[in-house]
Amino acid sequence: MLRFTEQELELVPLVEGALEITAAVAPGFPAGWVKIQLEKMAQEAEHALLDEPNAYLRLEGLIRLFYREWGFAGDHEQYYSSENIYLDKVLERKRGIPVSLGALFLYVADRLELPVAGICFPTQFVIKVDWPEREAQYINPFDGEFVSKRTMGAWLKGHRGPFSELRSEYFTLASNSDVLARWLTVMKSSFLREGLFAEALRCSDVVLDTFRPGDPHEIRDRGFIYQQLECDHAAAMDFEYFIEQCPQDPAAELLKLQVEELSKVPLTLH
Questions:
Q1: Which domains does the chain have, with CATH numbers?
Q2: CA separation (Å) from 52 to 55, 114, 173?
Q3: Is the CB of residue 34 less than 8 Å from the CB of residue 26?
Q4: Are 262 and 238 spatial neighbours (Cβ–Cβ below 8 Å)?
Q5: Where are the beta strands (DSSP E) in 145-254?
Q6: Residue 73: CB atoms within 10 Å
Q7: pLDDT tens by residue, 258-269
Q8: Close Cβ partners of 180 (under 8 Å, ≥ 6 residues apart)
Q9: Confidence of residue 27 (pLDDT cuts 50, 70, 90)
């Protein structure tokens, strides 16, 4: 359970929300240490760049500082590793994925009074620079490079098919809640790949408690996790809920068979 409500999460920097959800999933997570490192980074950036009156040059300076001098980069070799989601590991290894690197970049950029925010583009998290008197720019937080809408359109076609088209809503600034719910989804996927089913279950619980109460697809996914944990009756209850809420979904018929099998397993009281 989070200490903050969904509304309260909108009032804090994205990275602080990320610390909150990670602490809820991993009770031993060193959030205090991460906050100290974030403050050191912000102070170093302020000392180096805040006196630069030109915001465009200040942004270029931050990109150079973050990706060249500090050495942050996308993890090409272990993209789906949970180490790319835990911010303490990202800070130690200087490796991450778009959402984790983007959250760190945005935190420092905000301290430098730069007009940046995140968008949940369908393929990945992207940083949008909303200049007051010129066209918006977009930064790929995976490598710190500016990307055009044409390039993002190519990403989309590669992700959804050749007939996919860019829509204006893809470039709308994302709420912290949207980003953090997506963050939890990525975190859960990493845990499932690594066989960390208890941690994956806590991800689902946080999503359902805070961001998507009663969401049938999240409850269906939680049922799969319960299966891996051999909590058969809990899994059957989640699958039954999904079947009731989404009877036309192609997965519903298969899940009915799963429920029949799970219901045959004797209930064990602990």
A1: 6-171 (3.10.620), 176-263 (1.25.40.10)
A2: 7, 12, 26
A3: no
A4: no
A5: 145-146
A6: 17
A7: 999 888 776 554
A8: 9, 14, 17, 18, 21, 211
A9: confident
